[in-house]
Amino acid sequence: VARDLTYRQQGQGAAETDEPQGAPGQTCPAFREVYERHFSYVWNSLRRLGVAAQDLEDLVQEVFEDVFEKLHTSYDPNRPIRPWLFGVALRIVLNNRKRLGRRREVTSDWSLSDRADPVDPGLAADLTIEIRQKGELVKMALESLELDRRAVFVMSEIAGHTMPEIAQALSVPLNTAYSRLRLARRDFEVAVRRQPRGGKAP
Amino acid sequence: LSEPLPPLPEDLESLLEVERDMREPPGVKERVLKRLEAKLPLDSPSRPELVPNRPVPRRSRLFKWSARFGIGGATGIARLAVAFASGGVVTLGVNAAVEHSREVKRERQRAEAQSHAAPPAAAKPASETEIPPPPSPAVSPPPAPDAPAPGSAVQVPPERHRPSAKNHSGAQHPVRAGVAAEERTLLEDARVALQRGDITEALQMLTAHEQRFPTSALSEERDALLVREAVRAGSYGQARAWLRAFREHYPGSPMLPVLESALRDAHEDEDKR
User: Fold this and answer.
1) What is the pTM of this model?
2) CB B50 to CB A72 under 8 A?
3) For B4-25, what is each residue's pLDDT tens digit?
4) Cβ–Cβ below 8 Å for A39 and B53
5) Do A125 and A135 form a contact (C-beta atoms < 8 A)?
6) Does A129 contact chain B (CB < 8 Å)?
7) Three-class secondary structure of residue B145 per DSSP
8) pLDDT at A102
9) Residue pair B200/B61 in contact by the 8 Å Cβ criterion
10) Which of B10, B20, B35, B200 best probes binding to A when mutated, by most A CB atoms within 10 angstroms?
11) For A74, which of B2, B22, B52 is closest by C-beta distance?
């Protein structure tokens, strides 16, 4: 974890998966390639931004429709694509919230039954339960964050993007991005410490 | 403010590690892809690789427009110089002449197309079920604009781009349907390129359409797109000229008010700026 964190803080690359970094002179990738490689990323980004489980599929589709329209016009192939995809996803989430009248996502929207099960079926039952408890705790803590802080937190701490990438993707000054991350970290930690642990420490 | 933050506490990191391993439920990816394929032309011919926010190359655009009006190359430069010197009078004359020659060309092509479409009577099999061709009209077909008027006969003005009655009755011939699809694709591509802001590509598509289907029933739509393209490119003089021509050719077009308001809005925006 420490090595991974150091790696990400140095801005060497995305920690979540091995996304190829943009290099000068690169050409725009094809839409299908983007879809194949980054579907999981978009799906998880929307989920982490608080999209209800029943809306996830529709919003993923909206994001990729937007990507299809803008891939060749507004994406710079010399930069990594994931921060740009996150920016598109965030815009779709904001539009969706406006559409729904800013209703707060309810807890059951991200229930364990809706989530992909990251747990190996061969694992022991107590380990499975522990992992699920951790996932539930992260979800509750994320829900306590404001959306702008949540976006920075998700991009930095979970998706592993560098701060300049985040600032550019969200169209905010670098200092603002850092400030949001500090506040989000504090809020996240407070939320986690406040939750009852369900018998096991995270 | 921009100093790197210290790492998160270890317990929080282990929490986030679980979240990083999350994947979507199985089958969702394929389902969404199917929905996208049904909605979007994902397998359409690959578009040229574009540099993001690339400005439209002025040279290329100028070349295409100059080629369109027959004023490219050294001759065009000379013509433009003369036009400048004479305060635009010559330009109007040249444009009118070019328009006239294009009109003649279109009429000729239409006449050729009509003669190709009607097979010779001798070659026709004598079939009883065949519907006899309609009697030829009493009024002779319109003469070419440069031909002298025949006597004192009332000259019927040539109708532009009138869709033939055949198009409205019954199923289309497969070849004709294919051509129509190709034509629609060209215009659709031009519209998409225009929405994307790629003026060059849109102009290429429209020029290709004009060359391939000079007397098409969709030429009204094509000419409307041209006006919008010029407005989008910020070439208001050009847009006005094309709009004037459009108004003359299609005075009752429902697209006319839309184009006029687009040009007016663009002007107002520019004035505000």
Assistant:
1) 0.47
2) yes
3) 788 888 888 888 888 888 888 8
4) no
5) no
6) no
7) coil
8) 53
9) yes
10) B20
11) B52
CB of A136 less than 8 A from some CB of B: no
Q: How far is B185 from chain A (nearest CA, A)?
A: 17
Q: Is B17 on the interface with A (CB under 8 A)?
A: yes
Nearest-angstrom CA–CA distance, B25 and B254: 49
Cα A26-A30-A31 angle, rounded to 5 deg: 135
Q: Considering only CA atoms, which of B26, B7, B2, B27 is closest in space to residue B17? A: B7
Q: Which of B32, B49, B232 to mutate to test the interface with A (most CBs of A within 10 A)?
A: B32
Q: Residues B208-222: what's their mean pLDDT?
A: 76
- First CA to last CA across chain A, in angstroms? 15
- The answer to whether B19 contacts chain A (CB < 8 Å) is yes
Residues in B closer than 8 angstroms to A158, CB to CB, are: 16, 19-20
pLDDT category, A156, cuts 50, 70, 90? very high
Closest CA to A81 of A5, A149, A165, A160: A165
Structure token pair of residue A45: 């980004």
Query: What does the block give as tokens for A32?
Result: 């299908």
pLDDT tops 50 at residue A152: yes
Position B203 scores a pLDDT of 77
Kindly provide the ipTM of the predicted complex, given to two decimals.
Answer: 0.76
A112/B contact by beta carbon, under 8 A: no
Tell me, what's the pLDDT at A163? 92
The mean pLDDT of A172-188, rounded to a whole number, is 93
Phi-psi region of A142 (alpha: psi -120 to 50; beta: other; left: phi over 0): alpha
Choice between B58 and A43, residue whose per-residue pLDDT is larger: A43
**Residues of chain A found within 8 Å of residue B14, distances taken between Cβ atoms:** 1, 134, 202
**Positive/negative CA dihedral, B146, B150, B156, B159:** negative
Those residues with Cβ within 8 angstroms of residue A3's Cβ, 6 or more apart along the chain or in another chain: none
Residue B66 in contact with residue B94, Cβ under 8 Å? no
Cβ distance of A27 and B14 shorter than 8 Å: no
Both tokens of A174, joined, read 């670098």
Local structure of B45: helix, strand or coil: coil
Interface A:B, Cβ pairs < 8 A: 123
φ, ψ of residue B24 to 5 degrees: the values are -75, 155
- Binning chain B into helix, strand and coil, the percentages to the nearest 5 are 60, 0, 40
**C-beta of residue B142 within 8 angstroms of C-beta of residue B155:** yes
